[in-house]
Amino acid sequence: MKNSANASRQTSLSLNRPLEIVVTCEHGGNNVPREYAHLFSGRERLLGSHKGHDHGSYDLAKDLAKALNAAFHYSKTSRLLVDLNRSLGHPGLFSAITGRVNHAGKLRILEKYYHPHRNAVEAYIESRINAGMTILHIAVHTFTPELRGIKRRADAGLLYDPSRTGERELCIRMQKALTALKPAFTVRRNYPYLGAADGLATYLRKRLPCSRYLGIELEINQKHPLGDRPLWRTLRKDIISGIKTSLLPHMEQNAK
Fold first, then answer.
1. Does 8 reside within a domain?
2. For residue 137, how many C-alpha atoms fall within 13 Å in the half-sphere facing its CB?
3. Which of 76, 96, 97, 137 has the most crowded Cβ, counting Cβ within 10 A?
4. The pLDDT value given to residue 150
5. Per-residue pLDDT tens for 10-64?
6. Residue 187: closest CA among 147, 148, 160
7. Can you give the residue range of the structural domain that contains 127?
């Protein structure tokens, strides 16, 4: 199912069809399969850093999926083995460590750890669209508080394609709901990354009808999951509450 070039822009967020939510987490852990453990020997500190996984992303994604009664697809394999949020051919698909693996070895990594997640997400979303649903895909990630000496000035980011009005409308609504609930919580749109940059949601936008697929990346500053644990649990609840509030009109429509 491929998106038509003539329908690349979504003019508004339609409530004519039921909205189903799918939550994914591509960087949920820093596990390294046993057969590749030798590549990471002595690199435990690297695996434990933001380069190895997105701290806190799995817990937030799991809680969000449960609260929204959403399908949940996740991986706990380290992004240093292969980055599930990068497209085939992207220079960041393999890390500097696995980039030295030969071609056959890379194909094996893709077959065992990359394609299963990506294909499962795409197949599920396609099946639900074919069943008459409009899909809201929320991909949960977290970002390091400082990168290359530059401090990230946000607590959360909402990433979307600005050319897709439905995604923009939802992100504006989410931003307002989150900041109303926690005024001191800084939520920025298309920060610290651009939503139209390479990623799983960007890939799916190219393949699925723009009127039936909405892809949003929720990014949370890692200072929160790496900080006080009780505060992080409370913050997760607040984030989920804000997102649920922003989606209330769609949930009410689904209930009719």
1. no
2. 28
3. 137
4. 95
5. 445 554 568 999 999 999 999 999 999 999 999 999 999 999 999 999 999 999 9
6. 160
7. 20-255
> Which domain CATH number covers 123?
3.40.630.40
What is the amino acid identity at position 183? Answer: P
How much is the pTM? Answer: 0.93
Burial class of 116 by CB neighbour count within 10 A (0 to 12, 13 to 18, 19+): middle
Confidence grade of residue 7 (pLDDT, cut at 50, 70, 90):
very low
Answer yes or no: is 5 within a domain: no
Amino acid at 129: I
- CA-based nearest residue to 139, from 210, 61, 203, 81: 61
Q: Which residues pair with 175 in a beta bridge?
A: none
Residue 189 has pLDDT above 80, yes or no: yes
Residues 6+ apart with CB under 8 A from 43: 80, 97
